[in-house]
Amino acid sequence: MPEAMTGVMPVMTSAYPELEERFRRLGAIEEAIAMLHWDAAAVMPPGGAASRAEQLATLRVIAHQLLSAPEIADLLAAAEGEANSLGAWQRANIREMRRRWRHAAAVPGDLIEALSRARSESETVWRQARPADDFAAALPGFERVLGLTREIATAKAEELGTTPYEALLDQYEPGGKVALIDRLFDEIACFLPELLDAALARQAASPAAAAPRGPFPIAAQRRAALALMEAIGFDFAHGRLDESAHPFCGGTPDDVRLTTRYDEADFSTALMGALHETGHALYKRGLPAEWRRQPVGAARGMAVHESQSLLLEMQVCRSRAFAGFAAPVLGAIFGGASEAWDAEAVYRRQIAVQPGPIRVDADEVTYPAHVILRYRLERAMIAGDLAPCDLPGAFNDGLKELIGIRPGSDREGVLQDIHWYDGNWGYFPTYTLGALIAAQLFAAARAAIPGLAERIERGEFAALFEWLRHNVHAKGSLLSTAELVEAATGAALGTAAFERHLRERYLG
Amino acid sequence: MPEAMTGVMPVMTSAYPELEERFRRLGAIEEAIAMLHWDAAAVMPPGGAASRAEQLATLRVIAHQLLSAPEIADLLAAAEGEANSLGAWQRANIREMRRRWRHAAAVPGDLIEALSRARSESETVWRQARPADDFAAALPGFERVLGLTREIATAKAEELGTTPYEALLDQYEPGGKVALIDRLFDEIACFLPELLDAALARQAASPAAAAPRGPFPIAAQRRAALALMEAIGFDFAHGRLDESAHPFCGGTPDDVRLTTRYDEADFSTALMGALHETGHALYKRGLPAEWRRQPVGAARGMAVHESQSLLLEMQVCRSRAFAGFAAPVLGAIFGGASEAWDAEAVYRRQIAVQPGPIRVDADEVTYPAHVILRYRLERAMIAGDLAPCDLPGAFNDGLKELIGIRPGSDREGVLQDIHWYDGNWGYFPTYTLGALIAAQLFAAARAAIPGLAERIERGEFAALFEWLRHNVHAKGSLLSTAELVEAATGAALGTAAFERHLRERYLG
Lengths: 508, 508
Hints:
homodimer; mainly alpha; Neurolysin, domain 3; three-stranded mixed sheet; 20 helices; 3 strands; 64% helix; globular; disordered N terminus
């Protein structure tokens, strides 16, 4: 017998292969849901919304039925009993199956279906209400989604042994705890105000960087995004770039669908949006192919997912080194005065700090404040301490308090983000957890890869993404978030690397 | 009790509402499948194909399980027993449910799944093999699809009490019989050769119509298609126009997805392709909204579907009246010499007769020959009388015999159509059945609507589509094809109206 065959080899039990087969089917349905979701956001004509809601609700109910079928509980118990005879990936797969089963079994199917329909309807109304600055129009859908979400959170909390808010958080950040988030967010809230003031003062003391004159035609913006995405390593045989109201990375690992949104007056928002989503895309694409459509082959959670988008956008694409690479590319596409396409000018514009009302347009110094506000507000709403009709006021007061800006309208306030309308409660904290993980991972990558900044400046991204693939992407859900961060960086997740990064970039 | 309440009112039985609920769910899954199919053809990057095959196979298996669940047989028997207490639409719905159940119950789920996967894989290979003119590359997938299709045909034939070929035909043209098709096709084959010769001779005797000079930019071609689609009544709030290798009309009644394909040297192919698909789209869109996702709310079959696309393309858009409306629109978009945009020149170009190898580019005089060839070949292959490896020779010989043209390559021969590679066996005859129905319906519409040609020339399509909606679209699957044709036109389906139409247009 060859040596490779004598180690801990996966042994075929009766329960485990049957579970893999059932989860493969579930995974295929979830991929179908992901594609239909992309379609609704990127290409669907408005009149398709009601039918799409039916389609998604039906598929979600079927997925829920597959996952909460009574046999699954028996199969899981049997597979857990035989886990010692399985390999590490299979054992982790069982653990993730159990986690997914817990979430599903806690909630009756009709509640899932009601929420799915409410989400689709509410999202559709939001798409009209946002440009119309009409929170009142979006409110009934919002309230319905919140009401159903609270019901589900309560049911899941009982099954998982957590608070209702943590049960929602666990959907996006498995094992996420408010105690850790509170500690990390408090540390950030402690150093950030002073750091923001210092960064603004330093910025005010420098002359403004030269800026190119718009308008920047959308076709040219798209060309620029495609050129940089391709240089970074996005594989267009396995993905697309389209347009939607709220940029996102959807689709599947073999067919990644990115979106961004364009503003002719400002090329940077669309470009950085596309590069941010490219970070998500490369993670998705790098997930272990041999575990496709199995729970252990999925992304670890949204904090790690956001770490990959923020690592690319904030750590790489807003660095001085990247500006050196990108400036001539952008200059060739957009044309105009050459001093605006000087690498240092491009860099200085990319790291401009400017407190403002819109989260997705926020710089990385003020961004955590946007997240902390939403985290507080959604916890209060889930707890029943804040009524949706009081949300606009609370939102605007909170932003004023945190970064000194009061949104001038609900479009710039509570209507700006899709999350609550689309039912993604408990998602927001993962953005800032992601920023912390990104800073810590990038510091480790810099230590591991000689001359990383110089490589980036030459447009060489292979070594960085090889490191990320090995340490993050290809791990799928084998490890917990905490284990993954510690294995990759040698330290528990903290705020030190993030603070150091901000101090170096904005005060160094 | 008001009089309206004393008639045959739908009474709620225990079985019927449960069937409606189950078929609603099935309908939603089928809509999801339709959207994913559109996506694969129109926007999916090539690397997504394997995952898409998994998604579609899984959804098709689930649809098949829902349809062939043992309870369905019991519910159908119960509902049929209580049918007298139901309304006409409900009774027709039960009849259509029974038909669908028969097709599903005849075939084991693993065979459905195997065919679904084989279809996706074969279609993907075909997409590469066609431009590469490489039938050998496509052959293994073709053989696998054919083998599985024959297995399924045999199983269904037993359940339906038909021949295997008729069992396949029944999937597209419910109740379709080769005896009727043979009779109609023989009638066509009888008058067509002489008519074709006469039309060619008459055409040769006239000076050629002035033609605009290309190239015709794709963006302008798209603008022209959108402008005419909108004038005709396509509702862009409920549909889109995109591009694919093989033009088709997909999506759902509330979200109709058309495609066409562009050639810069020739604007007419893309334009007529889009208008042809618009005919399908208006049918789909006009299906009875109150029966969405129920079998009786679906299109009657592919012969009626094709009748709607051919009525718009051949009867309307290639008429002299339509040329009068469209010529100035096209002239304004494409520009160039004005004599090429003279209405009579546009009309004469649209009705040019030109025997050629490509079915989708064929004029309406030679088109039936393309269909008759494919009908004969696919019957022979299903019967096991023709091996796929012998198909290219048989195809080329057959076309030579029927219209005097031998394809110069397999790209112009057996690789040109997606149908066999994508598993749509038994579909081809519906094109010519559709042409016959179209001619008969349009003759009836002309008799019913005063000044129809003048309306078309003024760009007024409302009366025509109101007539079609009332007589065809809104009927869904209430009537059989034969009943529908007879109710709308006062006569059984025949070849007389088609022959009269050709004689008037090409020899009149």
